[in-house]
Amino acid sequence: MDALQEEPAHKWMVVAPSMSPENSFRRGEGITAGTTMDNQLVFDVFSNLINAAAILHTDKSLADTVTAMRNRLPPMQIGQYGQLQEWLQDLDLPRSTHRHVSHLYGLFPSNQVSPYQSPELFAAARTALLNRGDKSTGWSMGWKVNLWARLQDGNKAYKLIADQLNPAPKETKGQQGGTYPNLLDAHPPFQIDGNFGCTSGIVEMLLQSHDGAVQLLPALPDNWPAGKVKGLMARGGYAINMEWENHRLVSATITSALGGNCRIRSYQQLVTGNGISVAKGGNPNPFFITADIKAPLSVKPLSKPENIKKVFEYDLTTRPGQTYTLKFK
Predict the structure, then answer these.
(1) What are the tens digits of pLDDT across the range 264-307?
(2) Taking burial as the number of CB atoms within 10 A of a residue's CB, which of 169, 179, 200, 320 is the most buried?
């Protein structure tokens, strides 16, 4: 908290000096205060402490102080082009195709940008990612696979996987991306985070559990009409097996390591009964706490996006070591 400074115009508390890594808002100018990524990171640090104190029933005084400070952080902002702003001011350039997408930390790996909790920010994050383009270094493509999966666009995520698997150029400079003959990722040169990122993104296409529920096949691309997967791990200690045909789930099993409420989210309806009921209210499982963000600020009137996919949510009370089978309509 001692590193935060008061921003004079709105009295927000921000990191200063701050930057959006390796990027600038004008040629040679990138040092500023309160970049979106820093605001999101501080929000998560504060939220983790607040939630931990509540779960452990300790340090209430410290948690109250941190809560008051978190309330003074800037909200995320939507700029003149409908984009999630990278900077505290609306300085984004829609033609910027910079390889870094630091201001989308709130979308991935964090859970601050959600189609269900904050649909306007969800749409703004999509606009920001579209503006960045696809062509980039290999590791950046790995990031974008994850980001498009979080945006529930399986076809776009699949395209980035295909782009990343293109043969890398022989030169060891530039930002062409691609993959070497040994399947190691190319910036170029080799950078392992591209391999790890792409692998993570493939899992995000099949299973997500960051946003209050275990969501099955959230970003299935057209190129994967049928398939099966075993042993994917979700938050809360749940091991998931799934099988699908014609882009629709056929079956799924959930093995619970820790027990507790497992909230299931799907684009398809489940057969209820046998302990499965339609979800109501917040998820009581502490592994599925959602981000309590401020409403975004926007230079233009906000309207709720119309392309958010309809989902169905169900609760299943689980016991440690037990396996449960899901049936779909």
Answers:
(1) 999 999 988 788 999 999 999 999 999 999 999 999 888 788 88
(2) 179
- Domains of the chain listed by start with CATH number: 1-132 (no CATH), 134-208 (no CATH), 211-329 (2.60.40.1180)
Render 8-51 in DSSP notation, one character per residue: TTT--EEESSB--TT--SBTTB--BS--HHHHHHHHHHHHHHHH
User: How far is it, in rounded angstroms, from Cα 235 to Cα 94?
Assistant: 36
SS3 content of the chain, % helix, strand, coil (to 5): 30, 25, 50
Give dist(CA 139, CA 185) in Å, integer: 7
149 closest CA partner among 140, 161, 139, 135: 161
Contact call for residues 62 and 49 (beta carbons, < 8 A) = yes
Helices (H), 192-290: 192-206
Q: Render pLDDT for 85-115 as a digit per residue (tens, 0 to 9).
A: 999 999 888 888 888 899 999 999 999 999 9
pLDDT mean over 213-234: 98
Give the whole-angstrom CA distance, residue 86 versus residue 107. Answer: 13
Question: What is the maximal distance between C-alpha atoms in the chain?
Answer: 62
The Cβ of residue 133 has, within 10 Å, a number of other Cβ atoms equal to: 13
pTM of the predicted model as reported, rounded to 2 decimal places: 0.95
Check residue 168 and give its pLDDT: 86
